[in-house]
Amino acid sequence: MKNTPAAARPTLAIFSLAVALAIAPPPARAAGHIVVDGGFPTRYIEPLQDLPDASNPMGWTARDYALAADAGKGDTLHGNGSGGWQWGSHGLGFGDGDDVTLLEPKGGIPSVYTRSEFELDDPAAIRGMTLDVDYDDGYVAWLNGVEIARSPNMAGIEPRWNAKVDTHESGFMGVPMDLTKFVPLLVPGKNVLALACWNIGGDDMTLNPRLTLHDEPLPTPADPFHCYLTWQGNLSTSMTVNYHTRAAAEQSWVYYDTVPRHGVVADYAQRMGGASHQIDVLEPYTVRRIHVVELTGLVPGQTYYFIAGDPVTGFTKERSFRTVPEGNLPIRFVTGGDLEANPYTFRLLQHAAALDPMFMLFGGDIAYADGKLTSWMNWEACLNAWEKYLVAPDGRMIPMIHAIGNHDLNRAKQAPYYYGYLAQEGRYADGTSKSYFARTAGANTLILALDSDHMAPSDGEQLAWMKAQFEQHKDVRYKFAIYHVPLYPAHRDYAAAGNATKRQRWLPLFDAYGLTAGFENHDHVYKRTKRMKHNRPDPAGTLYIGDGCMGVEPRPCDQGKRLEDPAELEKLGLDETYLARYASRYNFILVEVPRVSERGIPPLKFTAIDENGEIFDTVTLP
To answer: Does the predicted model carry a pTM greater than 0.90?
Structure first.
């Protein structure tokens, strides 16, 4: 859940006390139905002291508990501290515009407790149970007095009314947990799902559960799934196939050929084995193995057909990819950043794939999961979108190269998904890998994926590595860098420390070695600079383009507008604005690298395209 500016929040529906008092518990529902959900009535209390112990069989989470005993132990909507258990309706909270029952912040609510009743005629008929909780910042759930789930940031914390939750987390509907093992807790007649939600003192809070009972065993999804392509090596002679399995499959295989084999394992001419790993901390939410198989010794510019999996867990459907050609052939790719799994991102991905790129560069903030375990479904949605939309007109998969962004890691400087899901560099013993790397495409294109102070400092070892890469590839004509934080922003302040630091550290190398273009992100707008050198416009300088708006909501171009004011330029020590074009607009960029030959070199072309497939900016470099 993201904080929403007050001006953008819809009117909150305050649950009327008169209506609430007249509401009875929900009627009995047959197995296989939702028994607790948003909009369903519940009893709730904002405790101001300890209630009987939640873990006590006779405590407030128990099936039979005398709520009247807690009169005067909780707050009320009026903030007078004289309340007890009240009638309300899920979800409960404040500050983000999605709550049915509004809780008054009163300087920060420590917690809210809820009890939702439902009735069953025949619990023995229940074969499965799932729980989905939209929450912010932490929660614990009990069924008939027995704990059945809690958010990771509540691990090891006693669930008292004023428990200190020191880590902000949030989850959202669409993340069902399989709690079938707790079905024996269900009893004939009344059952109670109790939940407590804690707030760390922020400006929003949410608790909205969904409990579903199933009269059939929960299906086991087919394996394998989530097949996608990255690179760990040469773009012309290698390809890395990533796929996931839910089963504990120890074998990782890719069978491949240069002609279609329609999934018949024995017909493929070659196979390559790989390795698999787990993100163990995800087990409360999803259990899976991530398989990585690097194919090497491939032919440049060749289309390959493949299946991935093993004879035990099964194989993917047949898919295809094409390696990047070698030599002086044209290179065509797409770049963008700051994605979310929403309709705008889907449309942008579709338009990008329709242009038949050889690969895609993503500039960080890939799924907006912030490295949080509870936001794993953000990545699920992105992985699904890549499989569905990153398909070229001829049906082949489009490989990806990912730089890292600030929303790809958590406050503890951990990036479990970026490292665990994206095979791009060799894995270290702790499950991480280097967050910056280089790739070459053909004879004339160098791509540096950089870390703008997220997992690695932008100076020190990374800066020395950058210099070595530029020196090693100094004769390559076109040099590109993709990174998250812009050196030349169109939204945030030019003088902000994060932007200024990267200019101070990186510009001398970019200028000295003639960086062709820097693909920038993070600002959620579109911008294109003038060609820049020594921090001034220069016809022989570097183009900075992008600013990352490939699905997230566009922001205003505040800095761009300020730079139209001569007084602002003087304050920043600039002779003129560095921006040639800016717009508050969804976008991705098509890059067309020409063939280099003795007969002459066509211009290098950049084309900005929006979510409707409309071209709204172009620029060429000689």
So the answer is: no
